[in-house]
Design brief:
With about 140 residues, the chain is an alpha+beta fold. Helix content is about 65%, strand content about 15%. It has a domain of about 70 residues.
Length: about 140
């Protein structure tokens, strides 16, 4: 049995339609699989970030030894340090083991005190210069 021209045309149309449906289906399928790949990539990135945060938290919670300056006047009392609800009291003049995050806070506080002293000295000098210029 041979197919007539009309039957061949119908078969060709069906093949074209099947091919179009297949390409549409594959496009939809690849579109559906893309978010999964993106989600997996995002999940992996999030996992790396969480691992980084855990490492940083571990580093900040390691113990270090510090010794704070002590004299008999202004610097004689113990120092209370608090970060996000966690606190510790550090004795002056004695080597003390504290978590690194508290030691870093003490360093930052000392740096801020130095900057404040520099600013006060600079402003006092500026005031003295302006006072001399105005003969006050």
């Amino acid at each position: 049995m041979q197919a007539t021209d009309k039957e061949k045309a119908t078969i060709d149309e069906l093949r074209r339609e099947i091919e179009e449906l297949r390409s549409t289906y594959e496009a939809k399928l690849s579109a559906l699989s893309m978010p999964d790949e993106e989600a997996m990539a995002k999940s992996a990135e999030e996992a790396r970030f969480r691992a980084f945060l855990r490492e940083q938290e571990k580093w900040l919670n390691e113990y270090v030894e510090v010794r704070l300056f002590k004299d008999n006047e202004k610097y004689k009392d113990d120092v209370y340090v608090a970060i996000n609800g966690k606190n510790c009291v550090i004795r002056r003049g004695v080597w003390t083991r504290i978590r690194r995050k508290f030691a870093l806070l003490l360093d930052q506080s000392e740096i801020q005190d130095l900057r404040t002293a520099e600013l006060m000295e600079r402003e006092a000098g500026r005031f003295a210069d302006e006072s001399r210029m105005r003969h006050v």
